[in-house]
Design brief:
alpha/beta, binds erythose-4-phosphate
Length: 213
C-alpha cells in the first residue's frame, strides 16, 4: 500500500515529501478553502513539490458533466504529468471522460464498481465518514478490494480516504487498499511508539555515561 497525503497545506506537503514516504497528494474543495489561497495556483504549487499523482477536485458548485469535463481539462492542464481530476460520484460525474479521474465520495461497493467501469483511474471510499455514522468503513474498503480482484480487467486503484487514525492505516493495508491518503497529523502519529522514545533515551544515557556527549 502506498501513501498519499490528504491536505492542501504546502508546508505539510513539503514536510511529508521530505520524509520520503508519500507518492501523491489528494485535495478537496474543503481542504483548499481552508488555505484561503487561489484554487488553481495551490494545485499547481502542490504539483511542483510532489512527483506523483495530485488529485484536484472540480468546483463544489459544478453538477453537470459538460462543465465538469471543462473544469477537469483546466485542472489537468495545470500539470498533465501529475494532475488527476477528482469527480464526485454522481450520474453526471460518471460521464466525465478523456482525463484521468479519481471518483470521490464513494460510500458503497456498487458506486465503486460503476466508477471503475466508467473508467476512473482511482476510487476513493471514505472510511472515516462511514465510521462516523456507525458503519465500519473498513468493510467497504475490503469489499471493493475483493470485487476488483475478481475482475482482472479492472485497473482502477483504491484510495482509502477519510483516514482518521493509525489503526485505519493498518486495517487499510490488510484490507487490500492500493493507497491510503493520510492527513499529516496521522503520518506523524504513525512514527510514534513510547518504546522507541524510551529506547532512544536509554541509548543516549548509556552512550554518554561511557563516551561523554
Ligand atoms: C479524500 O480524498 C478526502 O479529501 C478526505 O480523505 C476526506 O476526509 P474527511 O472525511 O476527514 O474530510
Amino acid at each position: 500500500m502506498k501513501f498519499f497525503i490528504d491536505t492542501a497545506n504546502v508546508d505539510e506537503i513539503r514536510k511529508a515529501n521530505d520524509m520520503g514516504v508519500i507518492s501523491g497528494v489528494t485535495t478537496n474543495p474543503s481542504l483548499i478553502a481552508k488555505e484561503h489561497k487561489d484554487y488553481a495556483k495551490t494545485l499547481a504549487e502542490i504539483a511542483s513539490i510532489v512527483d506523483g499523482p495530485i488529485s484536484g477536485e472540480v468546483k463544489a458548485t459544478t453538477t453537470d458533466a459538460e462543465t465538469m469535463v471543462k473544469e477537469g481539462e483546466a485542472i489537468y492542464a495545470l500539470d498533465p504529468k501529475h494532475m488527476v481530476v477528482k469527480i464526485p460520484m454522481t450520474v453526471e460525474g460518471l460521464k466525465a471522460k478523456g482525463i484521468p479521474t479519481n471518483c470521490t465520495l464513494i460510500f458503497s461497493a456498487n458506486q465503486a464498481l460503476l466508477a471503475a467501469r466508467a473508467g476512473a483511474a482511482y476510487v476513493s471510499p471514505f472510511l472515516g465518514r462511514l465510521d462516523d455514522i456507525s458503519q465500519p468503513g473498513i468493510d467497504l474498503v475490503r469489499t471493493i478490494s475483493e470485487i476488483f480482484a475478481n475482475y482482472p480487467d479492472i485497473h482502477t486503484q483504491i484510495i482509502a480516504a477519510s483516514v482518521r487514525n493509525p489503526i485505519h492505516i493498518t486495517e487499510c493495508a490488510l484490507a487490500g487498499a492500493d493507497i491510503a491518503t493520510v492527513p499529516y497529523k496521522v503520518i506523524e502519529q504513525m512514527t510514534k511508539h513510547p518504546l522507541t522514545d524510551q529506547g532512544i533515551e536509554k541509548f543516549k544515557a548509556d552512550y554518554t555515561a561511557v563516551f561523554g556527549a
